[in-house]
């Protein structure tokens, strides 16, 4: 990956720097990475493994972080990837999938609940 550094107290002249910004995506915290306590597993299960949520001072702050994460994912990240759906549809899809955790996925029923066709749903799931 290219790396760019600008050194100096100020920019001289009118120049434009166009560069690529690359992000390294890290997976959430794994239970094996956390200290073994009585509350670690239940906290990890309830808050998730992302550090900002897991390490929050209380459950309300953790849930607010999770809501903000889903909102940014559905309003910014997925549309940038080319998902052709409204942010409201994507947020509803994420919530519906969370409620279906561990159950058999009936794509026709899920698509009908969202008011879209099964082909579109399959495309959305491919991005997720």
Tell me what you see in this structure.
- The chain has one domain (38-127).
- It has six helices and no strands.
- With 128 residues, it is an all-alpha fold.
- The longest helix has 23 residues, at 59-81.
- The radius of gyration is 20 Å and the shape is elongated.
- The two termini are 25 Å apart.
What series of H and E elements makes up the topology?
HHHHHH
The low-pLDDT segments are 5-14
What fraction of residues sit in β-strands? under 5%
The biggest sheet, with number of strands, parallel, antiparallel or mixed sense and barrel status, is: none
The radius of gyration computed from the alpha-carbon positions, rounded to a whole number of angstroms, is 20 Å
What's the helix count?
6
What proportion of the residues is helical, as a percent range? 40-55%
Integer count of domains: 1
- The average pLDDT is 81
Structural class: mainly alpha
Shape, principal axes of CA atoms: elongated
Extended strand count = 0
Termini gap: 25 Å
């Amino acid at each position: 990956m290219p790396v760019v550094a600008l050194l100096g107290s100020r920019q001289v002249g009118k120049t434009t720097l166009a560069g690529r910004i690359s992000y390294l995506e890290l997976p959430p915290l794994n239970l094996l990475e956390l200290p073994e306590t009585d509350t670690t597993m239940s906290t990890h299960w309830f808050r998730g493994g992302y550090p900002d949520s897991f390490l929050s001072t209380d459950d309300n702050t953790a849930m607010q972080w999770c809501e903000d994460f889903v909102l940014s994912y559905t309003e910014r990240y997925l549309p940038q990837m080319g998902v052709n759906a409204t942010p409201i549809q994507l947020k509803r899809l994420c919530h519906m999938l969370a409620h279906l955790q561990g159950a058999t996925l009936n794509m026709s029923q899920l698509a009908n609940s969202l008011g879209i066709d099964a082909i579109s749903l399959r495309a959305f799931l491919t991005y997720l």
